[in-house]
Design a protein that fits this description.
This protein is an alpha+beta fold. It contains 13 helices and 15 strands. It has two domains: about 130 residues, 3-Layer(aba) Sandwich (Aminopeptidase); about 190 residues, Aminopeptidase (3-Layer(aba) Sandwich), CATH 3.40.630.30.
């Protein structure tokens, strides 16, 4: 490598635009990589971003050789996580890099210096910027098309991270459902039995009452996912911040609640695979990327979806509600003419969800790892 490598701290609006552009373009020529539309990353990084106002701070870094970006990385100080766990973990995110060990080493050194100066003793990630957002490094399944909210990176990235001292701390799984296959008989029987129970009812989200519905989602999310490794409770403001996108692009029939006489018992949220659109627009000239993306989100006929979260309240577990939600999500996706869906991500020790996925004849499609090292 040449000696022209330098690390730039990104703070001004123009710096953040350059960081976002670099993050979106370093892997742009890879068919399985689909960056989000312009402006979405800056919505996390700007000083008045929701994360900065409520959870901590983010320090973006850009590695350049001459004027060419070769790596991006953000050091993340998540005070909400460290307060919840009483620890001193630092995080990294928004990571992309060419196959350039020197650049990766240097940009991580810059992030580590920032995090050490704020009292952190370990570094974990990637999170963009929290565990409730996009996260992880793809370690298996590189050949699959891009899926909204799931990471993609070249196969050389896990090895380079290990060369600078990182080790996998957690492995997460993604399962693919072929919606052209009929629903298995056992799942159909469970579905029929539960639908006949008068105390339980299933319904889709009511978008006209979105604030109230978001409160239900926050309650169910926090009580059903609190067993997950690294879980940090979300607040109403966290979810409300992301709800603008739901209004634009979500399909209400894919966001479902099971209620027990109006008491929320379980929920599932699937979203169209917006990466299908992002992949189409990633090479357009930047001035027209965003309007083209917004137009296609309305006009595109999606072929796939991602089941982003499925949870059952503790008092209703082991009563078949997981299988019921799987089947209802299947039927809702069929009505939208989707060909496939992915459930992600799932922890390796989440045996109930894995077993139900296998009952649905789903196949393991990707493995994603969270990396960590002491600093």
């Amino acid at each position: 490598m040449t000696n022209s490598l330098r690390i730039q701290t990104c703070s001004s609006p123009s710096d953040l635009r350059r960081f976002e552009h670099a993050w979106a373009t370093i892997w742009r020529n890879e068919s399985a990589f689909a960056p989000p539309p312009p402006g979405s990353l800056r919505s996390f990084l700007s000083p008045n971003a929701h994360f900065h106002l409520t959870h901590g701070s983010i320090r973006p870094f850009l590695a350049l050789r001459g004027q060419t970006p070769v790596a991006t990385l953000a050091a993340i100080l998540n005070r909400s996580h460290n307060c919840y766990y009483s620890d001193k973990t630092g995080f990294f995110g928004f990571f992309s890099a060419q196959n350039d060990l020197e650049a990766i080493h240097a940009i991580f050194d810059a992030a580590i210096q920032f995090l050490r100066s704020n009292g952190c003793d370990s570094l974990r990630g990637p999170y963009n910027p929290t565990i409730n957002d996009d996260c992880g490094i793809l370690t298996d399944g590189f050949q699959h098309p891009p899926m909204f909210g799931l990471p993609w990176n070249p196969p050389y990235i896990p090895s380079l991270l290990q060369q600078i001292g990182f080790q996998p701390a957690r492995t997460l799984l993604s399962f693919r459902f072929n919606l052209n296959q009929p629903l298995p008989n056992r799942i159909r029987r469970i579905h029929t039995r539960l639908v006949s129970r008068q105390s339980f009812s299933l319904r889709s989200i009511r978008m006209r009452f979105l604030p109230t519905e978001l409160e239900r989602i926050v309650h169910l999310y926090n009580c059903t996912l609190n067993r997950n490794w690294g879980f940090v409770p979300i607040s109403f403001s966290d979810l409300h911040h992301a709800a603008a996108f739901l209004r634009i692009a979500a399909k209400p029939t894919l966001i479902q609640f099971i209620e027990d006489r109006y008491t929320p018992a379980a929920f599932a949220i699937s979203l169209p695979n917006f990466a299908e659109v992002f992949a189409k627009t990633k090479k357009l000239p930047r001035p027209i990327q965003l309007p083209a993306t917004l137009l296609l989100l309305k006009l595109h006929s999606f072929q796939s979806a991602r089941l982003t979260v499925l949870g059952v309240a503790p008092q209703y577990r082991d009563r078949g509600l997981t299988a019921w939600l799987f089947s209802e999500q299947y039927y809702a996706a069929l009505k939208l003419n989707y060909q496939s869906a992915e459930l992600a991500w799932i922890e390796e020790n989440n045996h109930e969800i894995i077993q139900n996925s296998q009952l649905m004849n789903a196949s393991l499609s990707r493995k994603i790892s969270i990396f960590e090292k002491k600093i």
